[in-house]
Each structure stands twice: as C-alpha cells, then as structure tokens.
Amino acid sequence: MAVTKYSQEHEWIRVEGEVGTIGITQYAQEQLGDVVFVEVPAVGRKVAKGEACAVVESVKAASDIYAPASGEVVEGNAALADTPGDVNAEPTGKGWFFKLKLADKAELDGLMDEAAYEAFVKSLG
Amino acid sequence: METFLSDPAAGPLKRTPLYDLHRELGARLVPFAGYEMPVQYPTGILAEHTQTRTACGLFDVSHMGQVRLTAKAGHNAAKALETLVPGDIAGLQPGQQRYTQFTNDQGGILDDLMVTSTGDHLLVVINAACKDADLAHLQKHLSPTCEVEPMFSRGLLALQGPQASAVLSRLVPQVATMKFMTGAYVVIDGARCYVTRSGYTGGDGYEISTPADQTDAIARKLLSNPEVKPIGLGARDSLRLEAGLCLYGHDIDTTTTPVEAVLLWSVGKERRVQGGFPGASVIQKQIAEGATRKRVGLLPEGKAIAREGAEIVIGGNVVGKVTSGGFAPTLGRAVAMGYVDRAQSANGTKVDLLVRGKPAPAEIVPMPFVKHAYYRG
Questions:
Q1: What is the distance between the alpha carbons of residues A22 and A5, in angstroms, rounded to a whole number?
Q2: Which residue from B196, B208, B297, B323 has the least number of CB within 10 angstroms?
C-alpha cells in the first residue's frame, strides 16, 4: 500500500515498495504561481536527503526542490518539459517530478503525514 | 521547495489608494519599494499577461513618484531640468512627453523618468524606489529656479492593451486621437486627471494621474468594462521584458550610462553636442569612441530560464552578465537581456548563459522581443 509523506519544504513523497515518487504540494504550487519550466534530475544520480536536485520556475522566480529522502533517481517526469503547467493543474498527479529508489526508508519517519502537513500549512497563515 | 515571497520588510509598508480594491479582488500583496503591492490576482501572471496583450489590463502604479515643476519668475523649468538630464526637454511642445534619465557625474543613471510639458509646467514620473532621492536631487538643484512640488499621494493608473483606447474613450472621447508620448488634462467622473498615451508594456495604452481620493472610483469604473482586468506587478515585469524596456536597479543603475544601455535615442541631438548635464563629458566620449560594453537582447535556444546575474560566456570567457531574464508568455519561451563587451555584441553572436552552472546556448538578438504597438496616429 502506498504511503504519502510531506516535508516542511512542501514536497510530497509517495512510497510504493522501495521507490518514492516526489512532487510539490497544492500549497506549494499556489505559492509559486504559473509554472513555466521544470528541471528534473538525471536517471542514475544519487541524491542525499535535503539535497537540491530539481528546479521549478514560475514566471517570477526559480525555486529548488529538495530530496525528502536519500536514494538513486530511477525516473524523471519527462512530460513536464512540454507541459510544465501540469505542476499547477495536478501537483500530486501528472505534475510529479522524479522517482527515487530509496536508500533508507527509516528517513521517512522524520516526515509529516497528511494531517500533520495540513496543520503545518495552517500554521503558516 | 523554497518560499521566496515572504520578504521581511524594513519598517511599515505604505499603501496606495487602491489597497482595499486589491484586497477585494483577491490580489497576492507583496512588499515592493516600500509599498504593499499586488504581484498577481487569482487568475495568475500568465493569464494577466495575455489579457494585457490581447485586450486590456489595469495596473496600479500609484507607488511611482509624481512631481510638478513650475518655473519661478524669470526662469524656464525645461532649461532647469536639462541641467540634470540628457534629454531634449526644452524642445518639448505643450502636451508632449519624453523619456530621459537623471545622470551622475560619471554618466551613470540615478533614475529614469518620464517628463511631460503641459505648457505651464512640467510633470515628472519617477521610480518608486528612487522617489525620495530624486525629490531631494530636484530640490537641491532646481529650487532656485523652480517650484518643486511632490505629488506623492496622487494615484497613477496604467490602462494598457489593444482595447485601452476603446475603453478610455468611452469616458473621455478625446483620448482616442492622442498620439503616443502626448498628454492632456481631462475630466473623468468629475475628477481632474492628467492622461498620457504611454506605458511600460510595449503596447498601446495610457497612464492616468488621478486625485488620491478619486483613484478608487476611477479604477472601479475602468474595471466595470468587460475588456478590462486587473494586472499585477508580475505581468508588468514580463510585459516590459518582452518589450525590451529597462527596469531601473536591474538593467540600468548608477554604473551604466545611457550609451551602454543603448538609450542614446533618448539623448537630445543638440545635447550630445552641447552637453550641460551631469556626466556629459563621459557620455560624449562614449558617443565618439563607443562604450566598452553594451546592453543586448539574448534568446536562449532551450527552455531553461537565465535570470538576473547569470554569466554570459563566449568560448569559455565571461563577456558579461544577464540583467533581466524570464519567461516571455507571448513567445512561449525564455528571453533575457544583459551587458556584453561591445566587441562581442553583434546580433547573431552565439553565447552560453550559465544557468545553475550549466551552459545554456543563446544568441544575441535585436530587441524588442515582441514588436511595439504604439499609437502614432
């Protein structure tokens, strides 16, 4: 069964088996505004938890996406090159960024579940 | 994801006369030049950009500074202002408007501004971030010859886009035939306003100076037209970038001269010869011999966006830096401008823009990126 966790940097990670799919939250896409460019990490790249490994650009600014857990990139969402607006339209669906083969699933314990993340967003006002 | 819009402001933020309207319209307000300003409305920057290019957008630019200069007896305000700017101000006919810059002794740009002659006095519009310094500069140098009257509480609305003329002429028929870079006093809804046919989008449109207490009513009246939607600072920036227009503090500043910035067209022909403005000797030398660097347009081949600060590289050598860059919604691709060594500034020159350390191939191209659509009659 898939489990979804959230980071304080407004990324979500959906874990199925050894692989986590990563994207940004509804709150994050609202804050960013219209997304016009996404750069996803290359397949095979090894990333450490907290490492900046993707970039999302809105009309106004570029923002880093941090790996919510350590692992090896097994897939990037190539479709975002042509349809970056998917990040706005379906941030937790078609707008996913990349998939990681997780190095240590215990790292996920430090992330928030959905209820905790919702409370966290509310606390931001 | 890093959040970037929560800029802790220094001191309390000022509000324009349209603050309540922005809130009502659901604007996202951000600190900008000491003001709480709308960066976008709920439809978002891309939709606002397209709205302005295809129909009509209303911008609140009341944060900008407006100053009235009136000659004291025996003096000439245009001649007085010419001691601070390289533009041909004395040659302005009543109702004519011109773009110029305050220069410093090194020929650098302290601010850029619009000057309109009403015949009786000069109306000056300056950038929000510079307005206190500009006012002090004007008072210091022009007080012996002019009344320098800040009108910082007045409203300033920009109505821009191909439908702007149809919309505004419903309220004020005479604006339909006004030409680009002219101005006139008009009455809108009983309020005495000064309208110029100008703007910062590269398209047709007007800027309307309004009495502070009638700004809200006039803005609502304009927004009641089906062609008009409110537009925030985000789209204002992408529109001006497509039009190749400079943003003060980014594309021009105290270290760039009008020659380097390729603004020589705004320097009066006689004034190039006669001088009489701060930094004239530096600027005249650059006109004669050429400046060492030049502002150019940059068109990246790919989709990566090179933003302000990105290095411009040719054959491994850094030849300049990007000063503005972003996504151009009209073109559906990234564009940028920046300064490069003049020897490498020819159109068609292939360069690399370093985006997060990676070279993004681009070409030096003429600006504007989107053709201007000014109304010249």
A1: 10
A2: B297
Burial of B276 from C-beta contacts in 10 A (0-12 / 13-18 / 19+): exposed
In this structure, the number of other CB atoms found within 10 A of the CB of residue B278 comes to: 22
- The answer to whether A30 contacts chain B (CB < 8 Å) is no
Kindly provide the ipTM of the predicted complex, given to two decimals: 0.86
- Nearest CA of chain A to the CA of B136: how many Å? 32
- Report the residue from A33, A37, A61 with minimal CB separation from B304: A37
Domains in chain B with CATH codes: 19-60+154-242 (3.30.1360.120), 63-152+257-291 (3.30.70.1400), 292-365 (2.40.30.110)
pLDDT in tens, B179-211: 999 999 999 999 999 999 999 999 999 999 999
According to the model, what pLDDT value does residue A2 have? 86
* Residue B187: its H or E element: strand B183-188
pTM score: 0.94
- Residue A49's closest CA among A91, A110, A114? A110
CATH level 2 (architecture), domain A3-104+113-123: Beta Barrel (2.40)
